[in-house]
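Service request form, structural biology core

Requester: graduate student, group of Dr. S.
Request type: structure prediction, single chain
Budget code: on file
Notes: please return the result as structure tokens.

Sequence provided:
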Amino acid sequence: MRSVLRAVELLNLHAAAQEGYERDSRTVRDLIDGSGLAKTTVVRLVRTLEECGLLWQRGDGRTVPGPALLRWAGMAGAGTAEGGRGRRRGVVRGQRR
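Core staff response, request fulfilled:
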């Protein structure tokens, strides 16, 4: 369960990106600094998220939201637009179990 929370935390760092060209992209260093996790942990989690299509690594080494994450975002938006009221549990940044 801890690995899942850590992976979600890395995805949340992409969502918290600033405006501009690089707004959705993060370097591994950005993810390490933003999460406080060890480099080996971040690299392993990024690799897993890439394999799942949730992140994609650009040619310059920066990571961006992948096609699966964008598909999930579209599904979430469609559920909200239709008045969906599914059960939601938020992950608070920095909260670990």
